Fold these 4 entries.
Entry 1:
Amino acid sequence: MNILYVCPFSHALNISPALHLAQLLANDGHHVHFYSVKTPYVVFKDHSLISKVARTPENVNMHFIENTYPVSNIAYPLINVFQEFRDLQRIIKEYDIDILHFYFPEHLFSLPILKKESLGNLPIVLTVCGLPGYGWSYNDKIVDLMGKTYVKMFSRRIIEKANLVVPLSSQVREEMVRLGVDEDKLVDNLNPYGIDTSHFKPCENKRDLREKFHLPLDAFIVTYAGRLVKLKQVDVFIKLLGDLQKVIPELVFLCIGDGPEKEELVKLSRSFNYNNIIFREFVPQDTLAQMLSACDIFLLLSKGEGNPHILLEAGSAGLPIIATNVGGCGDIVRPFLNGFLLESISYETLEECIVTIRDNYNEYSAAARQHMLDNFEWNQIKRKYLNLYTQLLGE
């Protein structure tokens, strides 16, 4: 099978879940092509990271287009859509592509679907992360208004043109149904992303890893890893940390990542004179897997999400999860099994969740790991995608 993936995100410090799926299918002998931007966002923000960028899979044929980022604090790549259209026509013809898989209609990358006939009328699978201005918010009124306008003018038409649509979460599915999307083309019972459970896994000795990464040996470590932007509400947890530590003296917060809010978050922690917050930069996937397994709980208090892959990584590493009930978090976190979902953030709810997990840690940790093995293991998901493609080609 000759498959072409079209996605704005391929790799940065780590490869994207979309590219990982492409690699798995290439491992099975399929001829896989991947079309994406030339400059990852992290490199655009900090060219010193170029040497740390992950290598793309050798068995996936990579194709890139020049890009920039019009809003420096938002990872939205701007491309020449006409050039993209010509590139896709050339790749389809030259490599005899059988099926197209596009990602994220809220990006310009999916616009060529509107000219489906000029792409050879090939069957198209479309993965939808979210609908800006509806269930998804960038926490910026102007950006959200632009997103909502784009959804009305373009995203809806793009979704209508696709043969099958994979929503990244049940919430996104509900939003599309409310917008009038034909339910028959929505794919159910397919978790869009998986996790390499052999790579992200619990460690045998946390103390050894904590020594390696210079983390306090006997602490109860809550961690966050990702972009440091207002949407993630990391500052909310920092403001509550002092009171939480009075009840949980061993509590430490490890914040892994970077972004426009980092400087303010560091200043905020210093203003409280905290000695139980540790900031670390973005790290490669191998290091992240070890750092996660050295911690105890993963925290995500975001105002909006798509399908946060970091929750799969944390859960696979055996970390119970505390997350706000937004985006795909509700499809990953099972309350009182592998963590808790918050409808609102308060000191009382966070204290109750952290103490409950701490006092029943072995049960929650084992359940977090098992939930990933049962529902998000990549090989299971790969087979479902392959069945999906085969079904479309058969039709």
Entry 2:
Amino acid sequence: MPTDTLAAIALTRDLAADLDFGGVPTADAHDALRRVIKGGVATGTQLNAVAGVLISAGRLQRTVQQAARAAGSDATLLATVHLIVEAMAALIVPRKVIDEVQRCVEEEDGRVRDSASEEVRRTRARVVTLANRVRGVLRGYPGEVTEVNGRLALAVAKADAGSISKVGGVV
């Protein structure tokens, strides 16, 4: 059996370490990193996934460190788990990244908060202003202003000779 597998078994069986990897959004985090490496922008959901992976890594690091302390002076047990203990000791979990993602991105839906930056706040305010202006223009036409798939639209009656001339074209 590989040495790292024996180390993980010793951590869980002999030192009662809970090495839980469940629920870690690694696929979304991987997609975020791949996108950013290519010069793209990660989505809020992807950023939450990165933060989730970092939080899980920090938790795993603390668990392994506690287990190593629990081994005390048992040289045989320490020799068995040393690979994982050393790997976890070398792990650097950037708490600032986690804190920034949690400050800027809604955990529930991955939406970037208005408070993330002044630029986001200004841009969102500008979008609202422009959407209201478009609504105002659309209200000047016959029909109901509505939103379809996130876009403003003008619901009009079935096209006939009278409605075409009121709208000024075919809708």
Entry 3:
Amino acid sequence: MIAAMRWATTQGMSLEDAERAALIVEQGETCFVCLNRYPYSTGHVMIVPYLHSPSLAELPEPAALEMMRSARRMELALRETYRPDGLNMGINMGQAAGAGIAEHLHLHCLPRWSGDTNFMTTTAETRVLPEELTMTWTRLRAAPGTSISTLF
């Protein structure tokens, strides 16, 4: 995702257009925030360290700190943008825990609303979204506190 975005910019695409195409909300020094392409709810983002690490304990301190700072910014952005009743934040480590790539952790942040659970994800393996991903990207990029320079 990051490599494709960087390649696109070397081919003349603007950084913003490349980030939009890759659904990257923000890039930091050690982590980036992107939309989940198969979200459980509108606004589902992932905070991903550039460095591959199978566990939080093995993640270098600067990356772990930036991950938490990004999670705090995303909490504020998601609350401001979508007004959810709550948020889920979690890391799946290892295949048995549901990690798609066991050697690489990332933090999921997703808004939740009372009564938002439905049968589609469970029985039909289908996601129902009321908003197109590019609109979610645009809204979160414009949310207060999502700039790397703000909040911290």
Entry 4:
Amino acid sequence: MKNLNQEQIKNLTKYLKNYISENKIAKAEEVLNKRTNHFTIVLENLQDQHNNTACIRNCDCFGIQNIHIIQHLKTFKIKYGYAPGAIGWVEKNIYDRHNKRTNQDCFEKLKQEGYKLICLSPHEEANTIYNFPLEEKAAFVFGSEKDGLSEVAMKAADSFMTIPMFGFTESLNVSVSLGILLSQIMPKLYQSNIDWQLSPKEKELVRFKWYKNMLRKSSYYVNRFLKENNP
């Protein structure tokens, strides 16, 4: 199915729609209209399953469609029972030794796509989550629970961001930091005049993937359609 062209995806989506309830279709469109790739999230070597799962839940709740997962130290595992409504709706782009994609590959790819790399770190020259400019596409990079951001990430960063804190503790849990960040910037983005929505082509692809997630044994319907339309 990786080799489907845009026309096949469009026709397959219409076909799958026949087997999905109107309520689910309406909900998918409502959520799709609030999805964005203007901002994206990079998770570098997170090691705690609860953190991983909570981060994905945060992204789904606040409208982030794509996240980038760097897992060189430990496989990125998810507690499926803790976020059944979030796992299948967010696109996870994996970078690890198995697919021979490094954190450097991730950062270079994002920059080629026009993203500024914003590393979350208590940096003296950092923007805060309250004054961050929304206009440019941004990829927010979070480091591991134990070691923080890698040197590769720090060197690749276009700028830094910090969350102001006023207690004795110097850092927050990764998923908590991500939730605070998104709760601050996403409402502002939605209310702005920035063109933040997915393109029609992006929406079509996401819609197709979501429809497959909504159907049990979706591969049966997809294969049947392809067989009937490509004898």
